[in-house]
Amino acid sequence: MTDRNALVSAALRHIRDAEHLLSCPSGSSEDQAYHLAGFAPECARKACLAQDWLNRVLGHDLKSTSDDVLNVALSLDIQAHRYGLQGLAQRFPELSGWSPQARYRKTGTTPSNLASRVVSQARQVTDELITELWLNGCVSEEVLGQ
Q1: What is the pTM for the complete model shown?
Q2: Which of 8, 39, 67, 114 is 20 to 30 A off residue 56, Cα-Cα?
């Protein structure tokens, strides 16, 4: 079974670190903030699925193509339907353009306005999913305070 608390903890860490990198007083790092931001909703989304093997198949990004894999996962994990995992690419267009391949971008090539929009959208998705998990009793309060 999925360790939901670990995935939620990781999601919260990624989004907090991304936000910190955007607002760091000694100089922001839009590239790294953009890179980290996408991992937050990925972890939160995977926490909504009960089976580990479904997490591995789902992948990292929120592109529309991952909805096909998600549909299969949801047909096997009926409880996950309650979390609103489908259609995130349409609701969060900048975030859906994110990919883990961002780590290979040349430093200084992520526009700050794009980085801040992606971080904001990643925060919204992460908070929505984690709130739903908490309301359904799937996540401990201890993890939320980390």
Answers
A1: 0.87
A2: 114
